[in-house]
Every structure is written in structure tokens, then in C-alpha cells.
Amino acid sequence: MILSRRAFLCSAAVLPVATAQTPYIPSRNEEAFLEDLSRRAFLYFWEQADPATGLILDRALNGGAKTQGRSREVASMATTGFGLTALCIGHERQWRERGEITERVRATLRHLADNQAHERGWYYHFVDMHTGDRVWKCELSTIDTALLLAGVLTAQQCFESDAEIVRLAQRIYQRVDFHWMLDGDTGFLRMGWRPESGFLRSAWINYRENAILHVLAIASPLHPIPLRSWYAFARDPVVFEDYRYVGAGPLFTHQFSQAWLDLRGLRDGAPYGIDYFRNSIVATHAHRAFCLSLRSAYPSYSENLWGITPSDSEIGYVGWGNAFSQRDIDGTVVPCGPGGSLMFTPQISLPALQSMRERFGEHIYGRYGFADAFHPISLWVDSDVVGIDLGITLLSAENLRTGRIWKWFNRQPNVRWALDRVFQRV
What are the backbone angles phi and psi of residue 233, rounded to the nearest 5°? Predict the structure, then answer.
């Protein structure tokens, strides 16, 4: 059920506490599981990148080979952003020789700064991993560029003693013309642009994964958008059973921005005043409750087997998982659903992932971790892994374990400046 914004915000309990926000310390067994899961995900970002450009494949086979068909040589900018962050994690955890990782970061930033095609600092969504050339006549993507920038700025802070990395990262960030993507009539940031037709008609009119885009745009050193732009997009209210939160998109829309943005204990100003970290906790609990509500039709769903977010399926890629819509749902489980919420709800996300590996690991757990999706009853298993899905699981796990991604990204001076103006302590 989706309520009107007025009715929802006037409610006495806009964001009820679904779980305590106390630090979670994984057990020895849980820590061993997270270490293995994380190292496998890191391996994807290391092996499936072009060493010269640093661009990382959008997807690959879970055995380590490239996928077949038209995606074989295609990288995505969002995956590369997750990958730069993965390199930071691998450097700190010494999963490869540190000098080797540092040089990969330098090579990636050199390519992005000097050779990668862009328009006013914005990058195309999908590109050839070896040349950086645009593929499929795709758009300049604002959200994919933002996720790439998140990785760039995380690397800047992780490798703060490397003058070249710091300089290149700042150069990449400051040339992005955020104001160019702002619709002056509506105050919305547009979703993208194509050279053949201009700006896309779609814009960020609702709260989804765009929080990080808006923070980066407000924080921009040279081309910022006004602070009021944060309040321009709607916070669409959602109610399911006893859960109330904002943001009617799939579960990943509550996860991606906060893989980098540390919003614990913060809320924005009037008229919203939302604690977005708690909002994501509630959204995850509500999503699990929704999966459990489907057990009469899909008996495989259970307390420790749940998760539906856009993914592969037996019939191809499906954008399922919008708030409590049963459209296209067929009983498939998507591990990055609970995986991306490890930093929010470890009490329910960790048992889900561990149960998946214990029950189905022989079929679904490969070189890079979990397959992108699987069906517990038909035993269909996706042969591919998808970079952004591995990425959100890896970053969420690291934030749960150490909070390193939050620490690095949120101390970046421009980001810190914007956060101090948008948010206040709860």
C-alpha cells in the first residue's frame, strides 16, 4: 500500500523502530564466512578488469570466464566505481600485493582522466572495456557516473599519501558539470543525455538510489547545484504490515548510496527530517516480510531464504522487486538482496546468506561468490555474476565489519561540506 505524502508524514509513526541500531559484532563463524565471500567478490573486480584501462566487465561467468553474447567485452561505469572501492578494501586487507593494487588504481584514474570519452565530465553507461568506446548507443548516465565518482573519491581518501591519485581523483570530480544536468524549470536532476537526442525525459523525481548523486552534485567544487535540490524530489511513502518507510523502489535503491554515504544518526531538514539509515533498516525488514507473505505461492521463501531485487532470471534480466509488487515474481531468490543490507540488518541478512550457501552452495557458490540469482525449487542457477550485485554485497559486508568505506568517503572534504549542510544529528 502506498499512501499520499501528506497522510504519511502526518502519521504519528513515520519510521517506527524495526531493530536496534547497535553495533553488530560478527561471530568467528560469521567473520570467516564474510571473509570468504568478500575475497571472492574482490577477485571478480581484479580479474575482470582490463589492466590498462581499469574498466571492469558488467558481468562474467561465475567460473571466471567472460560471459557469452553481446556483453562479452562490455564494462559499466557503475561496476568500475564499485571496483575502485573493492581495490581499496583489497589493499587494506592485503588480498594482493599492495603496490600492485596501487598501480591498478593509478592506471584506472589515468584512463578516466585522460582517455575515457565524456561530455562535461559525465560518462557513458556502458563502454568497451579495452578502449572505453561507447556501446549500444547508451546514454550518459548520471547515476552511473555518480557511482563511479564514489569509487574515485574513496580511492582518493584511501590512497591519500599518493599525490597522483589524489590529484587525478579531484580532477575527475571537479570537471563534472552537475548544473548542466539540472532541469531549471523543475529543479530535478536528469537521468541522462544522448548525443543523438539530447537530455532524457526521465528525471530523479522520487527518492531512489539518487541520494549519492545529489550529495555529490551539491558538494561539487566547480559546478554545484543548489542545496534546495535535495528537497526537490519526492519521498514516496510506503506501508506494509507494520512497516512504514519512504522509497518505493527495489531493495537496491535503499542500499547503493549508503554503501558510501555514512548516514547513521543523521536526518535531513524540514519538511522531511528523515533518518535514511533507519529508513533502509525498515525497508529491508519490510521486504523480508513481503517475501514471507508469498509462501503460499512460493513455499521456498522462508525466514532465512528471501530477497528479490532486479536480477537475472530464467527468462532473462528482470527489473522485479518494486515495493510489494508481485509482477513477474516466480520464486527466484537474489542473494544480493540480503547481501546489500548486511550493513543495515546483519541479524537477518547474515543468516540468510549463510543458509543459502549451506543449502545450495554446491550449485550457487562459485569463484566469485553467489550466482546472481537462483530458483530453490526448479534449481535453475544463473551462470553469471553481475558486477554491481557483487559490489554492493562486498561494500556492505565491509561496512558491517569495519566501516572503512564510510570512513574514507565521508572524510572527503567536498563531501563532508555537503553532508554538514544537508544533515543534522538525530
Answer: -80, 150
The domain that holds 29 is classified in CATH as 1.50.10.140
Domain assignment of residue 164, yes or no: yes
Q: Check residue 17 and give its pLDDT.
A: 42
Q: Specify if 8 maps to a domain.
A: no
Residues 357 and 302: their CA atoms lie apart, in Å, by 15
Q: For 243-266, what is each residue's pLDDT tens digit?
A: 999 999 999 999 999 999 999 999
Question: What string of DSSP letters covers 129-193?
Answer: TTT--B-TTPPEEHHHHHHHHHHHHHHHHHTTT-HHHHHHHHHHHHT--TGGGB-TTT-PBBSEE
Q: Which residues contact 426 (CB under 8 A, 6 or more apart)?
A: 265, 266, 267, 275
Amino acid at 419: L
The pLDDT tens digits of the residues spanning 391-406 come to 999 999 999 999 999 9
Domain count, the chain: 1
Q: What whole-number distance in Å separates Cα of residue 338 and Cα of residue 352?
A: 7
Separation of alpha carbons 137 and 193, rounded Å = 11
220 belongs to a structural domain = yes
CB 347 within 8 A of CB 24: yes
